[in-house]
Amino acid sequence: MHAHDTYDYAVIRVVPRVEREEFANVGIILSCERAGFLEARIELDEARLRALDPTLDIDSLRRHLASIPAICRGGEAAAPIGLLPPRARFHWLTAKRSSIIQTSPVHMGRCGDLPATLDHLMDRMVRPPKATAPR
Known about the structure:
With 135 residues, the chain is an alpha+beta fold.
């Protein structure tokens, strides 16, 4: 049986009009220092984003959001930040910003399967709730 790992995560938010402080959750960044795990998943719900700002440039947003998983992967392709250790990259990605792309405060948890936990967090925090059958 695999021991449980402590992990940190943050929700990636898109705040189309920062002055209004309205946002849609679009992804998760999950980090586990002990396991050397740093990964981000992003899923855009264009209809939700357009409800917040019909003029939002979705193509530009996608290009900017794509840098987050690239930074998580690290390496020279992710510019100088990609050369930092994974934990430093996580802290850089989750630093407070007042831009269209922001993250929630960092939360922590414990699990035995980091990829499954990332998928669970996407279901819980990003993807729309699934409809349940009426009783």
